[in-house]
Amino acid sequence: GQQVMQIPQYQHVQEGEDFTTYCNSSTTLSNIQWYKQRPGGHPVFLIQLVKSGEVKKQKRLTFQFGEAKKNSSLHITATQTTDVGTYFCAGLIIQGAQKLVFGQGTRLTINP
Amino acid sequence: NAGVTQTPKFRVLKTGQSMTLLCAQDMNHEYMYWYRQDPGMGLRLIHYSVGEGTTAKGEVPDGYNVSRLKKQNFLLGLESAAPSQTSVYFCASSNRWGQYFGPGTRLTVT
Q: Taking the mean position of all CA atoms in its chain, how far away is CA B107?
């Protein structure tokens, strides 16, 4: 079953507002990856976090990996209309074989 | 580099028909994957391959078969299509940094 939960499922904001999506796993993750999918497009790799407590920034996007490596978040500061899309987290679980498990995604819409 | 390509982009099948989706990558990646994406369900892994000549089942393998005869190609087959297989299918390949997705195939089964 689904081992990586992502919330919220949907988020609508006014342009300029901040946005955060959260990812939680029942299992310790080897790493966490984040992807963005524009409407009608395909998922595009954004970043990978590997270390406990790691924080990475890409312009207005801030990614965090929890100390226990079971949760992660993506925060967007001052959203722009180009941020519209669905954001997926994906956790790498190693239990014998490697398995990348995707969250259900958070769909972000923005009112200009 | 073309990255990951998929053919066809769109297809309509009748129940019981068969078809093969082709995925090709030119990044020399060992790992390749097939996902399906349905509204509200995120990405679900159908089958994957860790190298040429190997395949393994993912989360939702029933009704699908795959083959990886060449490193750069990963084929997904539907032997007898069912309406429940109406979906968008994404292929991906990966290196140690992340997965790279193809543009997708939109399949409708009537």
A: 11
